[in-house]
Automatic annotation (TrEMBL):
Protein name according to UniProt: YbaB/EbfC family DNA-binding protein
Source domain of life: Bacteria
Record carries keyword DNA-binding: yes
Gene3D superfamilies noted in UniProt: Nucleoid-associated protein YbaB-like domain (3.30.1310.10)
GO MF term list: DNA binding
InterPro entries: YbaB-like_sf, YbaB/EbfC
Amino acid sequence: MDNPLMDVEGARARLEAWKARAEQRAAETQAAALGLQALRITAADDNRIVDVTIDHTGNLLDVKCSDRITRQAAEHTSRAVVEAYRNAKRKLAEAAAEVVRDTVGADSATGRALLAGYAAGEEERP
């Protein structure tokens, strides 16, 4: 058949291949979303005085302080909390990148869109 528009079987095969690719992308996107939502990150300040835990959105879930906190000024404790939070946000961005890389691919349009929020979050200051 000379006219590709009249090739019904070829058109059907192309449509099935397109459908399979779309279903694969949907499954990968769902896996990325579930993986990202499951992220919980705990990080400490550099002196290991404070540990913070954040969820996949960067919301603070928990703060734990070592006994050494009683031997320092409140100002130092405040800085330790902020430092631990920034460390957790950095680790969150790294973990999110790994999830995206393993599911939809960091170079895909979906991957770049998913990671854009985490990259923007790295620049925020609490």
